[in-house]
Design goal:
transmembrane; Cytochrome_P450_monoxygenase; about 550 residues; 11 strands; oxidoreductase; three-stranded antiparallel beta sheet; oxidoreductase activity, acting on paired donors, with incorporation or reduction of molecular oxygen; binds protoporphyrin IX containing FE; Cytochrome p450; globular; alpha+beta; four-stranded mixed beta sheet
Length: about 550
């Protein structure tokens, strides 16, 4: 009897399994059939674009940032304004936007929602609700709260603080120069931008350039634990330890920021007029007092912050601290790298600094502090930074398609459905398009942003900070930081990339030294050994090994 019942159970489980498998297989082939109608590189009935991905993995670096791939595909297959890349079920089916007009449509006219994939990827870094992934009224509210912290008027008042942090960076470079050893430029550049964003958002000096800091250690360690979206290794993808580690670092970071918030709250409630500034933490507290003070009498009754509000503030701080350092530090490193490879361009940049700040580079910090508006005169330096951002775009935008959202393919006039698809506004495709920028597209030539030729290029093409309502809140801050770094560094030091000396850095204890993945095989993209890799954002490969020499 028991035996018979056992057979029934097995038969029922088998039936469910067969039904489940049949449905999964039917879904799979329905997906492939549907996707085969989209424009794109050759599509395999069974494999979609998975085999194509395999081909690129043979000829390009394994660690190459995924945002290079659509640009390579567009070039190799002469692809049009919108095309599909589908590695389902290994990855999502992605509709790639490779046209400035369509990018404008998706980012600005229709402002597609942010992709769920982005939410999943950023959750460990800044919780489920933060400025980058929020939508609708919630996003509007928090964007409006923090906007004033990034206004040009506010930023200009912070220039002296940025200069001070950058002088600590200069001291650090000096030490590397006297030791005459290679080092990874990305490391000190990262600590520089962390210190700056701490001041801008929290009115707090992490001093990460000179000391260990609990928050910075936790944040950087957590970034190394994020899932590497280029890895297909199931042991990595489903690592059971990752969620536990994430919880631990999240707890440490929230605790640190919570203490800062409480201290500021107490100071504000006690003596509002003396402590208020337009840094992020005070702007958040302004909103808190405005929203919660009704009927509570004086501010001292608000010292126990509403838990929901508190969570939003802290997670937004976490997001701003991450978004506000990673991309900027990479751009500082890439700008110095590119300048070091083009003595003629570097000479022009230095001549501009001589002209604006006087011929003594050692006096530049004081000159700048006494007249912060001199930064607005840096025309050539700005072009050099723009050219760096064009070639080394640190971030792009991933949106979510939907049943009512269609993209009109300008090459055919077809309305392309975006239902169920991830939409990628692929700025790297736009920034590396030979058709748009000409035959020297992969060359570093700041002049292209200064000559009349730029007026022939659709202004919606160049979008390192994205465009539309979800553009980068920190773009002016980033430009200001990078300009100040170049002004204070470019005339004092000569840099030389040291990729041929990477073996000397194997034991330097950095995040780069600890990870061996992809260090063998092809190591260049478009002939560039300092290609970008995915390490939370787009970072210079191996942290950009450099040697530096003092000039004056
Ligand atoms: C070179 C430096 C930077 C680059 C290239 C850059 C690029 C970008 C891009 C492309 C986006 C759009 C992302 C998306 O659509 O998902 C973005 C958004 C954002 N960036 Fe930046 N960023 C830089 C520096 C900064 C800085 C210094 C901050 C300061 C906190 C910052 C904070 C943010 C935030 C909060 C968003 C989300 C804005 C929103 O959706 O309302 N970024 N950034």
């Amino acid at each position: 009897m028991d035996n018979l019942r056992g057979h029934h159970v097995v038969a029922a489980i088998a039936t469910i399994l067969v039904a489940y498998l049949t449905r999964a297989i039917a879904c799979f082939f329905r997906h492939r059939k549907l996707m085969s109608k989209y424009p794109g590189p050759p599509y395999h009935k069974l494999w979609g674009h998975i085999l194509l991905l395999g081909e690129y993995r043979k000829t390009k670096p394994i660690r190459m940032h995924p945002h290079y791939l659509p640009a390579l595909l567009a070039e190799d297959y002469n692809l049009g304004p919108v095309f599909l890349f589908d590695t389902y079920p290994a990855g999502p089916a992605i509709l790639i936007v490779n046209d400035p007009g369509l990018a404008h449509e998706v980012s600005t006219v229709q402002n597609y929602p942010k992709s769920q994939l982005l939410g999943e990827a950023l959750e460990p870094v800044a919780g489920p609700q933060n400025l980058v992934v929020m939508e609708g009224a919630l996003w509007k509210k928090w964007r409006a709260i923090f906007n004033p912290a990034f206004s040009m008027t506010q930023l200009m008042t912070l220039v002296p603080l940025v200069v001070d942090s950058t002088m600590v960076f200069v001291d650090g470079l000096d030490k590397f120069a006297s030791k005459n050893d290679p080092f990874r430029l990305e490391e000190p550049a990262t600590h520089l931008t962390i210190d700056i964003i701490g001041k801008v958002i929290l009115n707090h000096d992490f001093k990460s350039q000179t000391t260990q800091n609990e928050y910075v250690d936790a944040m950087r360690a957590q970034l190394t634990w994020l899932r590497d979206r280029t890895s297909f290794n199931p042991l990595h993808i489903y690592n059971p330890i990752r969620p536990i580690i994430n919880l631990y670092y999240t707890w440490r970071m929230r605790r640190y920021l919570g203490k800062l918030l409480d201290a500021r709250l107490t100071a504000r409630a006690g003596n509002a007029s003396n402590t208020r500034q337009r840094v992020g933490i005070d702007l958040a507290l302004d909103t808190y007092f405005a929203e919660y003070s009704r009927g509570k009498g004086d501010d001292m009754n608000l010292l126990k912050m509403d838990p929901e509000f508190r969570q939003y503030v802290i997670d937004n701080f976490r997001m701003l601290l991450v978004a506000g350092h990673d991309t900027t530090s990479s751009t500082v490193a890439y700008a110095l790298y590119r300048l070091s490879r083009h003595p003629d361009i570097l000479a022009k940049l230095r001549a501009e600094h001589d002209k604006i700040f006087g011929s003594d580079p050692l006096a530049a910090a004081d000159v700048l502090k006494s007249n912060v508006h001199l930064l607005n005169k840096l025309t050539y330096t700005t072009a050099a930074i723009q050219e760096t951002l064009r070639l080394y775009t640190p971030a792009t935008s991933i949106r979510q398609g939907g049943p009512h959202l269609f993209i009109k393919d300008p090459s055919t006039g077809d309305m392309v459905s975006t239902d169920g698809l991830t939409i990628w506004i692929e700025s790297v495709c736009l920034h590396r398009s030979r058709k748009i920028w000409g035959r020297d597209v992969h060359d570093f030539r700041p002049e292209r942003f200064l000559s009349p030729e730029i007026s022939n290029i659709d202004p919606r093409t160049f979008r390192p900070f994205e465009k539309g309502p979800r553009n980068c809140i920190g773009q002016e801050l980033a430009m200001l930081e990078i300009k100040i770094a170049l002004v204070l560094v470019a005339r004092l030091f000569d840099f030389k990339a040291a990729y041929d000396e990477l073996h000397l850095l194997g034991g330097d204890g950095t995040l780069w030294a600890k990870n061996d993945r992809g260090k063998q095989g092809v190591q260049d993209v478009w002939g560039d050994e300092a290609y970008q890799v995915l390490y939370a954002t787009a970072k210079p490969r191996d942290g950009m090994p450099m040697r530096v020499k003092r000039r004056v």
